[in-house]
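As noted in the main text, all predictions were made from sequence alone. Below is one such record, for Reverse transcriptase domain-containing protein.
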Amino acid sequence: MNKITYYSQQYGLNISIKKTKLMIISKKRIIEGQLYVNQSPVERVTHYNYLGTIINEEWTNNQEIRARIAKARSTFNRIGAFFNSHNFSLDTKVRMLRCYVFSVLLCGVESWTLNEDMSKKLEAFEMWLYRRILKIPYNSSDILCEMNPDMLSFKPSCKEKYLESEVQEKEEHLG
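Prediction:
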């Protein structure tokens, strides 16, 4: 870090200690680790928001998925008047849900590694959305028959398409 500070100062650039953060990403918890800029310690963080995605020390997606669910719920609530309206058919409401809410929820899904708990959270949120649209009480269990939920069914295909495009790009670059 001293070399970076030294060379940046030669070009008139200063590293802001307030904006600089340190995060060590490892599967094993690393307790020690400190960087200094001009003899001032750099703040160590456990998670960081980078380009709209939450990155944490353990490199898990739990915080990111929870944040996506919160953003999608907020989007749903903002356009809630549309979903409560009787002027639109159920098909139109589901299409709007997939267009506006699912797109917010599944942004960045290609990079997620889902465990069972996170899959259940996503499925529960999907059921919450459908129950709100259909005005079905929570003690009713027939929602699965009515809606045939499939939000997570296309998640692996998105990841496969992303990986295929990466492989093709590398093959074109190499050959």
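DSSP finds seven helices and six strands in the chain. Strands lie at 21-22, 36-37, 40-41, 43-44, 47-50, 53-56. These features were considered when defining construct boundaries for the mutagenesis experiments described in Section 2.9.
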